[in-house]
Amino acid sequence: MYSPKNCQVSPPNYQLLQLMNEQGWIIQIKNLIRTSLPETKITVEDLAEAVHVSPRQLHRKVKALTGVSPVKLIQEIQLQLALEELEKGEILSLGDLAFKCGFEYQGYFSTIFKNRFGISPREYWKDSMKQAS
User: Fold this and answer.
1) Residue 89 in contact with residue 130, Cβ under 8 Å?
2) What phi and psi values does residue 72 have, to the nearest 5 degrees?
3) Residue 28 confidence class, pLDDT cut points 50, 70, 90
4) How many whole angstroms separate alpha carbon 113 and alpha carbon 75?
5) What is the Cα–Cα distance from 94 to 107, expressed in whole angstroms?
6) How is 52-82 classified by DSSP, letter by letter?
7) pTM for the predicted model, two decimal places
8) What CATH number was assigned to the domain covering residues 15-132?
9) How far is it, in rounded angstroms, from Cα 78 to Cα 74?
10) With 0-12 CB in 10 A as exposed, 13-18 as middle and 19+ as buried, what is 30?
11) Would you call 90 exposed, middle or buried from its count of C-beta atoms within 10 A (0-12, 13-18, 19+)?
């Protein structure tokens, strides 16, 4: 026979639910950045509008969840996309790669790529082409 005293239902773990929600939100942000990059350079304002928050709220939440600003998050995703493209070996020029990944200037792209990965994109491209041969 059923008795409410025998039924043990634990209360929902609100911290876990909040964490799952926040992780999903960051994944959504990263996907928005990745899908928009080949077409256009995404700005913090564009990103904020896409997720229906103010740029300031976006900054606070992204910084709290990732430890970096939205600008740095966008830049990191751009660099990861560039690295993936270089590993595929299907690019024709570094200028095209920079543009495809949302950078306006190849020189700036090369500088931050080298700062992030410790090797210039040209050297990385040459090395990956040698390994493919």
Assistant:
1) no
2) -65, -35
3) confident
4) 10
5) 10
6) TS-HHHHHHHHHHHHSS-HHHHHHHHHHHHH
7) 0.77
8) 1.10.10.60
9) 6
10) middle
11) exposed
Residue type, position 9, single letter: V
DSSP 83-99: HHHHHHT--S-HHHHHH
Tens of pLDDT, residues 87-113: 887 788 899 999 888 888 899 999 999
Residue that has been written with the tokens 């024709």 in this structure: 92
- The span from the CA of 105 to the CA of 112, in Å, is 11
Report which residue type is found at 31: N
In contact, 91 and 85? CB cutoff 8 Å: yes
CB atoms under 10 Å from CB of 61, counted, come to 18
- What ranges do the domains of the chain cover? 15-132
Cα 80 to chain center, whole Å?
8
Q: What's the distance, Cα to Cα, between the start and end of the chain in Å?
A: 73
